[in-house]
Amino acid sequence: MPNIQELQDLVTQVRRDILRMVHKVNSGHPGGSLGCTEFFVALYNEVMELKDGFDMDGIGEDLFFLSNGHISPVFYSVLARRGYFPVDELNTFRLIDSRLQGHPTTHEGLPGVRVASGSLGQGMSVAVGAALAKKLNGDNHLVYSLHGDGELQEGQNWEAIMYAAGNKVDNLIATIDRNGQQIDGGTEDVLPLGDVAEKFKVFGWDVMEIENGNNLEQVISGLKEAKSRTGKGKPVCVVMTTEMGNGVDFMMYTHAWHGKAPSDEQLETALAQNPETLGDY
Amino acid sequence: MTKYTDQGKQDTRSGFGAGMTELGRTNPNVVALCADLVGSLKIQTFIDENPDRFFQVGIAEANMMGIAAGLTIGGKIPFTGTFANFSTGRVYDQIRQSIAYSGKNVKICASHAGLTLGEDGATHQILEDVGMMKMLPGMTVINPCDFNQTKAATIAIAEHEGPVYLRFGRPKVANFTPVDQKFEIGKALMLNKGTDVTIIATGHLVWQSLIAAENLENQGISAEVINIHTIKPLDDEAILASVKKTGCVVTAEEHNYLGGLGESVSRVLSMSHPAPQEFVATQDTFGESGTPDQLMDKYGLNNKAIEAAVLKVLKRK
Question: The Transketolase-like pyrimidine-binding domain covers which part of the protein (chain B) (predicted)?
Fold first, then answer.
């Protein structure tokens, strides 16, 4: 197990990767990616039980599904740095003939990705299905998923949320990235989500919160706590408050960087705030 | 004229149910999902015999498609069941992203397709589903013609790796294909050899085509009848071989002429052997309430319409 400083270094390096990836192609979604960096680093390096290598069925290991596929930069960086594919391949993000499509997909066979996402609101259902398959297979491993808060405006989520509680899908941990922002503005201005935790509770989930999703230790202990709550008859929801654009001062406290790449100058400033730790790709 | 005997009218959805019963006993990876239409889909026996392999999702088709995609991760072969309308148009994006684009081994099984659902009317009758599904890259599209063929198709698609759309209907219709006929995906079936015109039919219109061919024979017209149960991938070779011989074609389907089997046949012909074609299909319209027979008559989807189309296309040769 890596120590906390090593993980913190990885967090910083992943932030650099995200910024450089979106800058190079002048497209992509840095805001949500930066906000979820601690979550991905913790999940893939400290929380999930993973086999070596990758196979689609993932029997005998934990699975992860990214529902809000637009934060692909953070997903790709963490997968690469966990060894799923060469780190240098991050160079091909969003380029023609790349396995690193704008939104994650299985279509080009990128190791670590088990379903396409990007059209929002579909990942919860897929995660529920994978969790049911684990139960049928007598596989005691868990299924994790991540969802944007704005994404909860899609009705399919609530079908899945109702199903998972009603059918005691208790090997599932769904995390909601509660950054309060979406493309057109604050979530409470665009279409109020209200009390997300309470909504999950009344649907029958076991709900817990991570107050600061950009504090690595809080994220690790929160996800471990979530893990301990599985297998008790209820699906587990983690409402995780994050700051979109975290780690780059001018990208925080706004929805402006949801889907916008930094200029050359802005990149330089942003990278200076996240000095190289493990080596750039 | 090759003779076919109706072994007793049955609904194609019951053929699906019978196929599921058999799969439940023979393939432990097959699982079934249903969106509150178990009785309509005729899968109660599968459920009774395999309760742990059945998932009742309620009236939530989008979630059903996503759960099915997820179940494939771990090696399950999910069969989803609801009406054709709710199996396609309602959940097109879920099928597109989570199943087709993701290359998931999901079998989308759609009952009550076309007009013959009858009295429920246009909200529940879908005449656009084949078009939507055949446009999805990697999707196999199958529309069997009777009980026996639907049962055989259901069993066959479990062995096929990749997403499949299986379309069948509600009313009891002639059951005339051999009970033990092997179902080969993508392989057209020659039902009657002829020389003057090719009738290419799918689903409920296959039996109607046989009746039409018999009536035409009495008028001295020799009609070749081909049963296309697989609309995608289409058996281009069988179509070309027949039309090269007869010189004209009538396509017959319980679907809009836009996007259906007829247009697929047109593509094949226009690329290598252009020939006059008439379409027995609905004419870019919604359906309405009525008995299946009334509807098929009103919308020109029966043996009389096929016969008229043949007489018309022969004049264009």
Answer: 10-175
